[in-house]
Specification:
alpha+beta, globular, about 160 residues, five-stranded mixed beta sheet
């Protein structure tokens, strides 16, 4: 992005969600050079100043300070695991005292109407025994030089691809 901008070339950049961190991708490439980059995401970014007051972001920061004190909040690798751990907790709660493989698989493949704490509003988790994908919606966003600005509402993944 920085090289393209240096050549006065401004193509549309579409970045994979796992590579679209403000602090580890856009700022190093240059905030100005990264303006307009589009990314599809489903999780809140704890390093985004516009999300600093959201209760889930505050909770994540407290958790991170306690259990991962050297975590750089610009590194987006930690918060998906936070959401995954929450989901595992929900599945285990649904299992109750029956932790047999059959029941565990049943509970893990019939998720419905769940929203992990760091998910963007309007994006939840659901799956089935025939479709293990848990995330079916994404939020398209555009980097404005400071933050990721939503483009419309979350969209069904199948409609984006």
């Amino acid at each position: 992005m920085r090289v393209a901008a240096g050549l006065n070339w401004h193509p549309l950049h579409i970045v994979a969600s796992n590579a679209g961190s403000i602090g580890t991708t856009f700022i190093p490439a240059g905030a100005e050079a990264s303006k307009g980059v589009i990314i599809a995401t489903w999780e809140r970014n704890p390093a985004d100043p516009t999300q600093a007051d959201h209760p889930a972001v505050k909770d994540f920061k407290v958790f991170a300070a306690r259990y991962m004190p050297s975590l750089d909040l610009n590194n987006g690798a930690a918060f998906p695991d936070y959401n995954n751990a929450w989901m595992i907790e929900q599945v285990l709660k649904r299992c109750g005292d029956d932790l047999a493989q059959e029941n565990l698989l049943k509970q893990a493949t019939t998720l419905k109407d769940m929203t992990p704490p760091m998910f963007i509003g309007g994006i939840g988790v659901y799956n089935s025994p025939t479709d293990y994908r848990a995330v079916h919606h994404l939020q398209l966003t555009r980097f404005d030089g400071t933050t990721l600005v939503p483009i419309g509402k979350p969209a069904l993944l199948d409609d984006i691809i």
